[in-house]
Amino acid sequence: MAITNSTIGARHFKHLTAYDRGKIAALHAAGKTQQEIADYVGCHKSTISRELRRGTVPQRKSNEKIVHVYFPDTGQLLYERNRKACGRKLKLDDAIEFIKYAETQILDKKWSPDAVCGRAKREGKFKDKMVCTKTLYNYIDLGLIGVNIDLPMKITLNTKKKRNRKNKKILGRSIDERPIEVNERQEFGHWEIDTVISKKTKDQALLTLTERKTRKEIILRVTAKDSLSVSEVISQLKVSYGNRFSKVFKTITADNGSEFADLGLSVEKDLTEVYFTHPYTSCERGTNERHNGLIRRFIPKGRPISSVADETITYVENWRNHLPRKILNYRTPEECFQIELAGLAS
Length: 346
Prior knowledge:
Number of domains: 3
Distance between the termini: 52 Å
């Protein structure tokens, strides 16, 4: 795309090279004027003046007489030294307290650099003695902050090719029938649901529910990845929320996995509507899929869910819900969720 309103003008100058300085030395020794040298090299005569002043050093003759001679090597050496010193200075020393805070949050609490910067700014910490997200990433890449290998996700690569599949079963109402306000994320109470497994065995699984507006995450253990186990856990969830269940869970969107075959029977009598995504379209539950990826930081693929302690599952859920989110203006999902619950009670 063409840039028609660029505020950056074209440069009409170039830096002298070592070869240019060699020509300047030869012409200067031959008695040429600064204007003649500038015309030959192809620059302004002020550039020649500054270069001669930079590269000229005093020399003592055999008769003890001091003369000033231009050396191109000296000019090049001083040029390279000045280039290293140019540019904006690092704020590392001024922001050292913030840097220590960032290291702690990233290493101990597994926050992202953006969450660190955004939350600190929201809470008014460190005032002007902190750096922005981009600068913090730069410091990490330069090795000034020792957390580079601890960042769980710096790039995302999609190596899978898109495939068209047919004859996938549909378990209930399509996501096409879902109310438009669910897509806008302005109304509280619309959830996405999925299961997280360790490997393709009959081991236990995790049932995850993500609220679309607040990004609140609920993680529950199920004894198996089947409809009976999911129904049992949903029943426990209904008991936990009591009379507020239908207000907190207005809709639930699931994929067409067999474990959700009875989901509609489990909750629709409580006025909760259930919708199913199109076959092989996980992006239609993108919020839940993204948060399932965060769970993998603590429970990697291949580790049996049965070997994961309840305390670990609780820790992961609390960590997720207390992670400041940029999309929430650096509030945490738990803060936003509690605000919505208070609104239901009023």
